[in-house]
Write a structure and sequence with these properties.
Keywords: Proteasome. One of its GO terms (cellular component) is proteasome core complex. InterPro entries: Ntn_hydrolases_N, Proteasome_alpha, Proteasome_sua/b. It contains 1 helix and 4 strands; from the N terminus they run αββββ. By secondary structure, it is an alpha+beta fold.
């Protein structure tokens, strides 16, 4: 055994490959932003959504 935790290395590589996101909570609302980098020139960037409303009080960002 080399002492490496391969699962942690895979998780860190997945984080590096994902888009950066930020959320800011204010007294009167929330702002959520994320990068929108197309993976291919064949992808219509207007059809790719990375911010979704789960319910009236819950939103999420994914890459």
């Amino acid at each position: 055994p080399s002492g490496k935790l391969v699962q942690i290395e895979y998780a860190l590589a997945a984080v590096e490959a994902g888009a950066r996101s930020v959320g800011i909570k204010a007294s009167n609302g929330v702002v959520i932003a994320t990068e929108k980098v197309p993976k291919s020139i064949l992808v219509d960037e207007h059809s790719v959504h990375r911010v979704e409303e789960v319910s009236k009080h819950i939103g999420m960002v994914y890459s």
